[in-house]
Design a protein that fits this description.
Layout (H helix, E strand, L loop, with lengths): L6 H26 L5 E5 L6 H17 L3 E5 L6 H8 L7 E6 H9 L11 E10 L1 E5 L8 H10 L5 E4 L5 H13 L4 E4 L3 H10 L4 E5 H9 L4 E5 L25 E8 L4 H15 L2 H9 L3 E2 L4 H22 L6
Parallel strand pairs: 1-2, 1-3, 6-7, 6-8
Antiparallel strand pairs: 3-10, 4-10, 4-11, 5-8, 5-9
Length: about 325
């Protein structure tokens, strides 16, 4: 072995040692992960799709890695409380956040956030997607989106739709429809999906975007009429109901659910997490569990999820800006 004795040579040897050491450190990080319990923070109360996904995926991770996975529900502040907690957590992959459409909406809807949704988080994986269904009261003389748009044009501001609240996915889906169709309809916000569904059944409002599975019994009983779904293709549970996009090109208001880690979490830990969650999403058990909620697994790469998320931020920013929406928070 030859010995390098000049100054530049010594610098080269030191540089090579630093690079090798860094690579070994990264390898050790991934190999040692997880070294303790993993906490998955859910910004909503127990029982919803975010919570169910967190618990189902968490159980799979616990089985594979032999580490406890704790699901912690931190509702409040329009998801800001939980999100800020994870943004400030140690970025080592042991604290994760369940995110959904609201994470892409909040930067445009809320006055000020104590974090940056892009800079302060590292996308891990988009776990699942779930289209909503556009249902109308049977008294409304429409059979499809084209009929609804024509009626709204004939009666500007007189057609009333309800949602789970200002800035909710069901509200913004309605705003996107109105924007793409160039029509004006009146929005009535409620404090959740339950109350708006009750008033739709009574005829107090005329249509809404609803979560498929809870709405399906009303559709089958003929109490509500399904005229479209919010995704770009028919939903597996409603194969005969066409997408809104078939009438209004570019419409896509699919609800989605993913996992983020704190922003400086090592890349190799992100990749390891992604691989194991994608593997879990591909199991028959997981596919069947998601189907019960009208959802389908996604399981994309961290980079693909990052690109998708930034597209969602831009899309909903335009909808919110055009509609002049602002949250009270």
């Amino acid at each position: 072995m030859s010995t390098i004795v000049n100054g530049n040579g010594r610098f080269l040897v030191v540089a090579l040692m630093i690079i090798v050491g860094a690579n070994n450190a990264h390898a050790q990080t991934a190999a040692a992960y997880p070294s303790r319990a993993i906490r998955i923070v859910v910004p909503f109360t127990p029982g919803g799709p975010n919570d169910i996904l967190a618990r189902t995926v968490g159980q799979k991770l616990s089985e594979v890695w032999g580490r406890q996975v704790i699901v912690e529900n931190r509702p409040g502040g329009g998801t800001v409380i939980a999100t800020e907690l994870v943004a400030n957590a140690v970025p080592d992959g042991h604290t994760l956040l369940v995110v959904s459409t609201s994470h892409a909406v909040n930067p445009s809807l809320m006055k000020k956030l104590p974090f940056d949704v892009v800079r302060d988080f590292a996308p891990v994986v988009r776990m699942a997607a779930s289209p909503n269904v556009l249902v109308v009261h049977p008294s409304l003389p429409v059979r499809n989106v084209r009929d609804l748009v024509a009626l709204a044009k004939a009666k500007p501001g007189q057609i009333i739709y309800g949602s789970g609240g200002i800035g909710s996915a069901t509200h913004l889906s309605g705003e996107l429809l109105c924007s793409l169709a160039g029509v004006k309809m009146t929005h009535v916000p409620y404090g959740g999906a339950g109350p708006v569904t009750i008033d739709l059944l009574r005829g107090e409002v005329q249509w809404m975007f609803g979560t498929i599975m809870p709405t399906l019994p009303q559709i089958k009983a003929g109490k509500l009429r399904a005229i479209a779904v919010s995704g770009t293709a028919p939903a597996p549970t409603l194969p005969d109901v066409p997408p809104v996009a078939g009438t209004l090109a570019g419409f896509d208001a699919t609800s989605w659910y993913g996992i983020f880690a704190p922003g400086k979490t090592p890349r190799d830990v992100i990749v390891k997490l992604n691989a194991e969650i994608v593997r879990a999403l591909g199991t028959r058990e997981m596919r069947e569990r998601l189907a019960q909620d009208g959802s389908v697994p996604v399981g994309d790469t961290p980079d693909a999820f990052s690109a998708f998320f930034q597209g969602e931020v831009a899309k909903w920013a335009k909808v919110i800006r055009d509609a002049g929406l602002k949250s009270e928070l």
